[in-house]
Structures are given as C-alpha cells and as structure tokens.
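User: structure tokens for this one?
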Amino acid sequence: MIPQMKELVNNYKPEIIFSDGEWDYDSKTLKSEEFLAWLYNESPVKNSVVVNDRWGKETRSKHGGYYTTEYDLVHSQQGIGDNADHPWEESRGIGTSYGYNRFETTEHYLSSKQLIDILIDKVANGGNFLLNIGPDATGMIPVVMQERLLDIGKWLKVNGDAIYFSQPWKSPNRPKNENLLFTRKGGNLYILLKKWPKTPVILTGLKGAGKVELLGYKGTLNTKQQQGKLTITFPPSLTVDELPSQHAWVIKVSDFRE
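Assistant:
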C-alpha cells in the first residue's frame, strides 16, 4: 500500500490522514514506520500533516498526532484511558454502521438529542466528535440522517460558542453532576445542560463572574454571587418551548474568575 499512499499524498496533499483497518497486523508487518518516516521527512506535507493512531494493532492510544475511539471504545475496550490530555477524537455513525446500511431501521439510529449529548460530552472532555454519514448508491444522504444533521446544525448555530475552539474546564471546583458539562474559552465559562434543570445551578470557589446568560434566550437569568458562590436560577415562567434549542442548553458566564 505504500506506493498508493505516497501517490495520494503527492497528488492531493492532505492535512489529515486517518488510517484504519490495522487491528489484525502490527506496524512492522504493515510497514507503517517506513511510510511515516517518508511522510514526516520527505513528503510535501511534512510540516503540516496530522495522522491518527491506527498504524498497527499495537499503536492505538500510543502513537499518533491524535488518538481515536469509535463507538466509545478502542479494540482494547478501555477507551483512551489515561491519555485524555493527548488530542483525541471519537468517531461513530448515526446508526450502527459507518457506511450506508439498507438493513438498518429507525431503531438503529440515534436521535438528535443523543447525538448532541455525545458531541458536548466529547468536547467537554477535551475531544473532537467525528460523525460518519453514509450516502446511498445514488449519492443521496438518507432523510433520517439529513434530519439529524439539520438538528445538530440548528443547535450549533445557537450554542456553537461553547463548542468551537473551546477547552475543557478541569477545575476541582467543577460540580459533580452528570447533567452538567463545562467548557472554557478565553475568560468565559460555558455550562452545558443535558437536561432542563429543576433546581438552581451552583458554582463555588469563585473570585468573580460577569454577565450570565442563556444562549439563544433574550431574557435574563436570576443570579446571586456571595462568598465565592454563584447561584443561577431560571425564571419560573420560562419553559423549554420558548427557547430556540430543544435538546441541550448552554449558560455563558463571562469574565469568569476562580
């Protein structure tokens, strides 16, 4: 495969190479070292290309510009383990297949809510989410997949500020609540709500916080700062139906200091 791989690189100059199908052979058998040595030392993309970790059955979560999981697992069934500080990416299909599978029914497909929850979970833990789409034989994206993509796009249009170019918030002050996820960007903290909260959202250990807003909502939230604690309460009259997001919600805390 090395001549074909070199041809692809020389002709198309990719920025990312996602290798796959390595699980039966080690990197020596696949001659991965030979190709990667050429890629990083002689190829036209040697100073810019990024590769994943699938270059032999022993290389996942050990070697690569970024590590990969799929359907939340690597073949060792241990995920990325202690390597969460290394760039990583979760990949999966909307259903149980990567390509188009005409035998999949609606019960095989994740809902828009489930996919958005996966997206925010991976990003809040420092990862990327690669969602595979399987066109049919005519090149058309199945309608059920189109619906999911449109829903994700609508959600990102409102809440993308909490996703793009963000970093996970790893503070010991982070509340332990499975329905709350957090990202940071600049001086802003983003609280991602997987479920509509029935009780106030409380942050502790703060030195200060500025404006608090619910992305996509023009009204104001009730907030109280006292002795290093920020309490955020939603107006009792506010319902999910009034909001542009129907699957998950984001509170933005500007000028966040701890």
